[in-house]
């Protein structure tokens, strides 16, 4: 055992008693105090239905559902692609909170070391740490604007993270899975990685960053990935869902079968990084450093970390259930990360979901290329719900999608302002005019075969199933089918006529139509709440419920029968303002939509 290991072990013995590992059993208290949560959207606009599930302590003793976004590289400000991953992960987190099966821990953060960061800082003539502080704050601010319900925002420059990475690598080194060797290869600074021949375009160009990958030679430490080839193959056979969607799994299996090559985990010439614990002349390769962030996000910022901590990492909530990533970083998450964990004998994440790219003119939007759509411009002009809704409904999760502002405005107006917002406004107006603003019957009195009850029940099931399989577009479509039918039903039944001029029986029918439409809209609000949390809260408020009530909702509440006779509904105020303004982005790709 080398000195560093010995020190780590001694440290383990002394600090374990003094400072127990943060346990997910402490989450309610920790959550309120965590730095990520201090800046999270929930503090300001707590629009998460069922956001209170952790605070209530109702899940004590259960492992949390842990879901992560990539840790974004702070080489430049966030763009719509970064926001896309984060919004999608937020939807998954919100949906799981609604299920109330487990507490949920939603992790995001920033990846802050490496050559590209040092270069970006130098270009601005600031220190790397100052640069990271500035850009990390931009990410946090953006997540707040987008109502991202983060539980933990991890930064890879925080002390607990640095200690955890060192402890974990030391364990792998002590096991004999790391060795030193000379390396020569073509390096892409944009990707911060050596590229295989088959990954590069003509003249050794990186297809993503469109720059030449320069030939480099250095002496590095290597991880014996090859030793884990069989175990990795077995993982993908035993857990076919480990990588989703299916084409990505096949891609990963192809990589593994074609030979899992040992890879370099250190850099000899990069100063801005975490030192290799047994050889401080080298720094840890930024990608290896960043992957550990998913684990250190579960620790307190300044927590002491030791080998002992690693042994008890499950008490902090590890493993993650799902890593949501873009398809560009699949190899790191689906091959390298599991292999490192296998070597360290720690539990593997449950799943890696790799979504597609938002493209501009058919090319991946990216910070390095600068061909990005500024999410601040969109969210400032149109609000969080509109942007969240458009990208989740219009881009099939897992596929690529382009943006067009014209299509954005059309879709959002048609679906959110007209189909949902107008229907609620019209029916509430009628309710105030003809029923004194009181819900006229018990919604559960409608027979199960009643048009809207039958449809809403069926579509709710379809929406829940779609969320479960990460088909956010399908979930949105299933919900819109309810509001769409609600509009049709209003037109067919025309309750305004019968309520005004009908006999008693016709008036009762008119009231029943309004009651059914409003109950259907309540279900719409709850089902769409993971995607458009503000709109959902506004709808619930209009339906006469408090924010507290909204926060306590669970999936069980999608069952027909929530609105009761005599319940007072609020005066109608538009819940979603129609967009009627000039475009705020440059003319972008002409056609949006699914591919
Ligand atoms: N165009 C995009 N579409 C969808 N997601 C994206 C896009 N660009 C980045 N992301 C998300 O961000 C992750 C990569 O984060 P990173 O900070 O490296 O961003 P980047 O813009 O791709 O950086 P760079 O252009 O410097 O390579 C992706 O895996 C994905 O989750």
From TrEMBL:
E.C. number(s) listed in UniProt: 6.1.1.10
Highest taxon, organism lineage: Eukaryota
One GO cellular component term: chloroplast stroma
Residues of the Methionyl/Leucyl tRNA synthetase domain: 205-427
Keywords (A to Z) from UniProt: Aminoacyl-tRNA synthetase, ATP-binding, Ligase, Nucleotide-binding, Protein biosynthesis
Domain Methionyl-tRNA synthetase anticodon-binding: from-to ranges: 447-594
Name recorded for this polypeptide: methionine--tRNA ligase
Source organism per UniProt: Symbiochloris irregularis
